[in-house]
């Protein structure tokens, strides 16, 4: 269940236009849902399975992954090789994809990439009129450094001019952290919760959509986050600025 939940969370939708009406997309599952490379293991494998009832063609794309102004940023890279770059899956079929590092690991900090698997839409059948939905799924690729790696979060809370609270987190460590959900409370009373899973990469920062909660400047919020490193908590003083948390 966890694999499928994470798999669904990582899916993006791309639209291939026909005219009007609709046609279903293929479906594929990935295991594992993230790839980790180490100085001792520069190549790993993932399994792609076609759970649909039609042939599916899948194309791979690897991009560098960073965070700027609180948002994910992707760019071209040749540092990671994923093969085969394109393949066809019969219904119920599987394909092993090998992911390898083409450079030396960073000596001090984790490297981060995204491997995107894109369904290539088949030619429409004769007489088809409609909208075809294709799947695009992105999984993280992490390359650990030869030294010990861990995340270190510092939180901020900013009261916007609209009276909402904008949370931000900076990761001063040398490894990523995945945050599954965040709870915000004041004097023991929960004010709000953010439930969209997200990553904060090493040396990067991230911010979240403002919460419609009442917390005046100077208030001390209790921020509890459920992460892949365990449950973390911090006391954060509310500041009042221009409505933008650091990193946005």
Characterization of this structure:
This protein folds into 2 domains: 2-143, Immunoglobulin-like, CATH 2.60.40.10; 153-240, Sandwich (Immunoglobulin-like). It is built from 1 helix and 19 strands. It has one helix spanning 2-9; strands spanning 11-16, 28-31, 35-37, 43-50, 56-68, 71-76, 80-83, 86-89, 94-101, 111-120, 132-143, 153-159, 165-171, 177-186, 189-194, 198-200, 205-207, 220-227, 230-240. Strands 12, 13, 14, 15, 16, 17, 18 and 19 form an 8-stranded mixed beta sheet that branches. The protein is globular and about 60 Å long.
Total helical segments: 1
Oligomer: single chain
How much β-strand is present in the residues? over 45%
Number of domains: 2
- In CATH, the homologous superfamily of the largest domain goes by the name Immunoglobulins
Uncertain runs with pLDDT below 50, 5 residues or more? Answer: 1-24, 243-248
Based on CA atoms alone, the radius of gyration comes out at 21 Å
pLDDT averaged residue by residue = 86
How do you describe this structure in short?
With 248 residues, the chain is mostly beta strands. 3% of the residues lie in helices and 54% in strands.
List the helices and strands and how they pair.
Layout: H1 2-9, E1 11-16, E2 28-31, E3 35-37, E4 43-50, E5 56-68, E6 71-76, E7 80-83, E8 86-89, E9 94-101, E10 111-120, E11 132-143, E12 153-159, E13 165-171, E14 177-186, E15 189-194, E16 198-200, E17 205-207, E18 220-227, E19 230-240
Parallel strand pairs: 3-11, 12-19
Antiparallel strand pairs: 1-11, 2-4, 4-9, 5-6, 5-8, 5-10, 7-9, 10-11, 12-13, 13-17, 14-15, 14-16, 14-18, 18-19
């Amino acid at each position: 269940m966890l694999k499928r939940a994470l798999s669904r969370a990582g899916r993006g939708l791309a639209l291939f236009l026909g005219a009007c009406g609709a046609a279903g997309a293929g479906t594929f599952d990935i295991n594992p849902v993230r790839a980790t490379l180490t100085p001792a293991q520069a190549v790993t494998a993932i399994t792609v399975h076609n759970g649909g009832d039609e042939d599916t063609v899948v194309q791979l794309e690897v991009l560098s992954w960073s965070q700027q102004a609180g948002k994910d940023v992707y760019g071209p890279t040749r540092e990671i090789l994923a093969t085969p770059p394109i393949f066809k899956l019969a219904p119920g079929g599987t394909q092993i994809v090998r992911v390898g590092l083409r450079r030396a690991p960073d000596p001090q900090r984790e490297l981060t990439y995204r491997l995107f698997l894109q369904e290539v839409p088949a030619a429409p059948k004769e007489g088809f009129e409609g909208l075809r939905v294709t799947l695009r799924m992105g999984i993280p690729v992490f390359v650990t450094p030869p030294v010990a790696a861990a995340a270190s979060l510092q939180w901020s809370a900013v009261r916007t001019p609209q009276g909402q609270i904008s949370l931000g987190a900076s990761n001063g460590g040398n490894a990523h952290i995945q945050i599954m959900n965040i709870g915000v409370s004041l004097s023991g009373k929960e004010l709000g919760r953010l439930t969209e899973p997200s990553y904060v990469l090493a040396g990067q920062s991230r911010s979240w959509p403002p919460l419609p909660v009442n917390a005046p400047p100077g208030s001390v919020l209790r921020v509890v986050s459920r992460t892949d490193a365990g449950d973390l908590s911090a006391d954060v003083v509310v500041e009042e600025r221009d409505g933008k948390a650091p990193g946005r």
